[in-house]
Each structure stands twice: as C-alpha cells, then as structure tokens.
C-alpha cells in the first residue's frame, strides 16, 4: 500500500531531507502559573514513529494540539511538512489538517449513522475527490487493515479494535504526511489493544510517519522507533529504540 503518497500524487516526504515536524523554542501559557510547554524544541524525520510519554499535565496534549493546528504557541514556531502551522488562519488550519494530517483518537470519533465505508470516505468527500477514485482508495485501505468484510456494517456492531481500524483507515484516506494518534488503545481491552499496537507497527514499517501520545509504556516500546518523555512542558528524555535503524530513512 502506498500510504506515503500525497493527495496530489507526490510523496508525503515533500520536505525530503528536512524534518516532517520541526518545533523550535515553543512555549505555551494558558494563564498565570507554570507553562504547558516551556521552550520545547523537537524534530521528527520521515519514517519515524515517535511516542510521547509523560504524566498528566506534562504537556503531551498541548504538544499534539500544536502540531495539529488546534492550538497556537505563545512563542516559538511549529512547522509540519513544510507548513508554518502557528501562522495559519482558522480556515487554513482546517485545510492543513484535511490535507496533511491524519488523526486517530482514543474514542474513535466515528459517525454511528454511517457505514464503515462512508466513515472512511468522509475525508475524501471533504476534499472534493472523485467518488469512484475515493471508493477505490477506501477499499484498498479496508483490505489492507483487514476489515473489508465490514464495509457495509455500522460502527456500533464492531469490536473496539475493529472500530479503531476504521478510524485509522479514515485517517489514512488522504495519504497524510503525518499520522497523529492520541491514546489509541486507551479505550480498548487487552486483545484489541494488541491488534492496534501491531497495526501501528505495520504502518510505520510501511513508511508512515507517526506521532503517538500515550500513557502506555508497553505501547511506546513495541511500536515506536523513538520515545520522548515530557515533564512540566520540557523534554527530559529522548531515546531511540532498536526498530529505529530499520525504520529510519524510509
């Protein structure tokens, strides 16, 4: 599956040789008190799977929201796939998420009154893609993720692991440069969580760049090529995993 190919037919590594994520000296304050992010700098290269760990209140969600263009830094810059995200208008931010980012959430965020296929097709419809081509892409993803037999089913009839696979298929529909996953196994039982863990590992092995926010150390160690730990809005640890050598440079 050519998951890294861009929606315009180009590679998602449009900034080949440059970081997919380039965060420089970012600070974020919401009110008086300690900052949510405190002078944080981070680079993530194409083909990396980065897990972000840290206790509650450490800045993990703030970092994710900055990268997704859902929040703005008080200071510093956020560049993703060549786009200065912190300088975008609200309209441009929405377009950026649609074109460059795939997002997977803890509670799936599927529309229960739409079939699996129609849930997966939503991003393509928002982009105005040809329906025939979009259906081919959706069928490719459902087959790749092992859920094509559920195309006509409604999400409420699926297991948690299957619903998360649908959410991943939707996130990959427009061939994003970056897949953001926010506690993707947090609402799953052990067996379903293991399925999603393997899925993320396989996606990264196929070249998808991933940033994963999680409290689950075992998830980070099994499917990430690199882990950072945040404490009080600062990176206190940055380590690479054995998988990094095979995944880097894809």
Please provide a written account of the structure.
With 250 residues, this protein is of the alpha/beta class. It has a single domain (46-70, 92-247), classed as P-loop containing nucleotide triphosphate hydrolases (Rossmann fold). Helices cover 34% and strands 22% of the residues. The chain has helices spanning 60-68, 90-100, 116-127, 131-144, 160-172, 190-205, 217-223, 244-247; strands spanning 21-28, 37-44, 49-53, 75-80, 83-84, 101-104, 178-182, 210-213, 226-231, 234-240. The strands form two sheets. It has a six-stranded mixed beta sheet with strand order 6-7-8-3-9-10, with helices on both faces. A four-stranded antiparallel beta sheet has the order 2-1-4-5, with helices on one face. The chain is globular, with a radius of gyration of 17 Å. The model is unreliable at 1-16 and 244-250 (pLDDT under 50).
Tags for this entry?
six-stranded mixed β-sheet, 250 residues, disordered C terminus, 10 strands, single chain, 22% strand, alpha/beta
Present the secondary structure layout.
Elements: E1 21-28, E2 37-44, E3 49-53, H1 60-68, E4 75-80, E5 83-84, H2 90-100, E6 101-104, H3 116-127, H4 131-144, H5 160-172, E7 178-182, H6 190-205, E8 210-213, H7 217-223, E9 226-231, E10 234-240, H8 244-247
Parallel strand pairs: 3-8, 3-9, 6-7, 7-8
Antiparallel strand pairs: 1-2, 1-4, 4-5, 9-10
